[in-house]
Design a protein that fits this description.
- Pfam families: CbiA.
- This is AAA family ATPase.
- InterPro entries: CobQ/CobB/MinD/ParA_Nub-bd_dom, DNA_Partitioning_ATPase, P-loop_NTPase.
- It comes from Rhodoblastus acidophilus.
- Residues 4-177 form the CobQ/CobB/MinD/ParA nucleotide binding domain.
- This protein is of the alpha/beta class and 215 residues long.
- It has one domain (2-214): Rossmann fold (3-Layer(aba) Sandwich).
- The chain has ten helices and six strands, in the order E-H-E-H-E-H-E-H-E-H-H-E-H-H-H-H.
- The chain has helices spanning 15-28, 43-50, 66-75, 91-99, 111-116, 118-123, 143-154, 167-174, 179-182, 187-214; strands at residues 2-6, 33-37, 57-60, 80-84, 102-107, 129-133.
- A six-stranded parallel β-sheet has the order 3-2-4-1-5-6, sandwiched between helices.
- Strand 2, helix 2 and strand 3 form a beta-alpha-beta unit.
- The longest helix is centred in the last third of the chain and has 28 residues, at 187-214.
- It binds adenosine-5'-triphosphate and magnesium ion.
- Magnesium ion (MG) is lined by residues 15-16, 39, 43, 84.
Length: 215
């Protein structure tokens, strides 16, 4: 079972939105997906309640429960678990980081979000992680922002594509859908399918890396 945690102490960066939309894109690509809601605000749990059908399991987890829940999901044949965490410097985020094979750090392309990620990155020092830049202007990025994007890409800590600010993300979440379901031929759907492909490649790279470490 592949395990992803969405983490950043910055609120509103897109942890829950991306957890949902990536999860749906992965399910459409053939994965058996569970979303694990570690956030007491319950964004994913609410989304699950609005969703028709049980094709994606949504489980709320309390502090200290995550490890056991992950074991249960694996026993049920889940192939991808995505863990959502609350904003802030929380023990819950650390619990998720400890369970995850890959941590995704959503950030809006501005100095506040990237600066606010520093505390999160401290916790990710010995873990595999990658930024996902979210709520980007749909067209070209400003030159200074583009420089920052290039720097993250050069360090190997940026997943592609950039995720644009699009109303589809908000509408889909409101209806208990992923963007690939809400507007299957839209630009948001295309970028989420691509983001799942690059996430999966990254996870596979992690697996190979671990294998060679062990050899
Ligand atoms: N790519 C996007 N385009 C448009 N709106 C977006 C996008 N991503 C997220 N949003 C909106 O931004 C707001 C914050 O997103 P979200 O709740 O996913 O962030 P979060 O990191 O989970 O926040 P929190 O830290 O409070 O849990 C929501 O209203 C969401 O609909
Ligand atoms: Mg959230």
């Amino acid at each position: 079972m592949r395990r992803i945690a969405m983490v950043t102490q910055k609120g509103g960066a897109g942890k829950s939105t991306l957890a949902i939309c990536l999860g749906v894109a992965a399910r459409e690509a053939g994965e058996s997906v569970a979303l694990v809601d570690l956030d007491p605000m319950g964004s994913l749990t609410g989304w699950g309640n609005r969703r028709n059908g049980g094709d994606i399991m949504v489980m709320a987890a309390s502090p200290g429960e995550l490890s056991e829940i992950m074991g249960q999901l694996e026993a049920l044949g889940v192939t991808l678990a995505i863990i959502d965490t609350p904003a802030g410097d929380s023990a819950l985020a650390e619990e998720a980081i400890a369970e995850a094979q890959l941590c995704l750090v959503p950030a809006r392309p501005n100095i506040f979000d990237v600066a606010a990620s520093q505390g999160t990155l401290q916790k990710l020092k010995h873990r595999d992680y990658s930024f996902v830049l979210n709520q980007c202007p749909p067209q070209r990025q400003a030159p200074r922002i583009q420089q920052g994007i290039n720097a993250l890409a050069d360090m190997g800590v940026l997943l592609t594509p950039l995720v644009a600010a699009r109303a589809d993300y908000q509408e889909a979440a409101r209806r208990g859908l992923g963007v690939t379901e809400f507007a299957a031929s839209g630009a948001a759907a295309a970028e989420m399918r691509e983001l799942w492909r690059s996430t999966r490649d990254r996870l596979d790279g992690v697996a190979e890396h671990r294998k060679s470490d062990a050899a």
